[in-house]
Write a structure and sequence with these properties.
The protein is α+β, with helices and mostly antiparallel strands. Helix content is 13%, strand content 23%.
């Protein structure tokens, strides 16, 4: 997944934008560079574009997010990023065991709010 997607993705449940990105596993890539600039939100800088004094557009296109989490600050849902793919499925199509396994494997890097209160699954339920 590229950082550029954070400018395009909203929560599929409550439609909140932008989503928060936690991306502990990234790697440099020499794949085709994205030349499009973010319009509303820069996931690389974690700020709205209008707040950036000197955006580093292009720097993020050289990074591939391999593993991480997208979370919605509004409805508290989280969505895994695995093998570069954000998996943004509605609650009824997600498997509880798979979600719990994902969180346990990444317990040291996933924010506490997601681990303890994230929807549709968390480690307290």
């Amino acid at each position: 997944m590229k950082y550029r997607l954070t400018d395009l993705l909203a929560c599929p449940i409550c439609k909140h934008f932008p989503l928060e990105l936690y991306a502990p596993k990234k790697e440099a890539t020499d794949r085709a560079k994205i030349s499009t600039k973010c319009e509303e939100y820069c996931g690389y800088e974690k700020k709205p574009v209008r707040e950036l004094k000197s955006p580093r557009c292009g720097a993020c296109s050289k990074i591939e997010i391999i593993d991480g989490v997208l979370s919605c600050p509004s409805c508290k849902r989280w969505y895994p990023i695995e093998e570069e793919i954000p998996r943004m499925m509605p609650d009824e199509l997600r498997e509880r065991e798979e979600g719990i396994r994902f969180l346990k494997k990444r317990e040291s890097i996933v924010p506490k709010e997601i681990l303890e209160g994230g929807k549709p699954f968390n480690l307290r339920i």
